[in-house]
Design brief:
The protein has eleven helices and no strands. With about 200 residues, it is an all-alpha fold.
Length: about 200
Amino acid sequence: MKKALIIALAGLALTTSASIFAAGDAVKGKALTVSCVACHGADGNSVNPIWPKIAGQSEEYMTKQLNDFRSGARVDATMTAMAKAIASDDDIPHIAAYFASQKQKSGVADEKLAREGGELYKGGRSSSKVTACAACHGVTGNGNAKAKFPRVSGQHNKYIVNQLKAFKAGKRANDPGKMMQDIAANMTDADMEAVAEFMAGLRD
């Protein structure tokens, strides 16, 4: 309960601070995405499940992630190099706006595993201090754009599992207040697989 309250308050603070966010221009952004296509696809729907779908992801979240890759706050061998190759910081909101304007293709999930993951996603597990994913990512998985909490509905399950494991191991540490690191630390591999399967099957 205490962790859920902290997460809610953090989200509120981030929402307030995000009021100065400057929206990008999707038309300008499309012309800047040539190097993104190889992994994420022309419309942001990657076909390789280890690379995230970014179609329909919020501008605010994508802008933060690209800036984090550029600054070193988030590290990935491929994305760090790609983000640093962007000519100007001013281009980032435009790239984010383009992919945010695209429609995400629905994911597919194993029904049995998704049912198990749905319980954890919606209600968490107090006995192991796992906060409900829905508290930040929403019941439908659309996230909270102003708080920079990502959309997770329809996302590749393999990508989600890899990110949860990275948070748990401390390899990814660009989450505000270590929220995701603390939650992932209390999740088993089976928990991660089940939640990821549920997220993959979520629809708007």
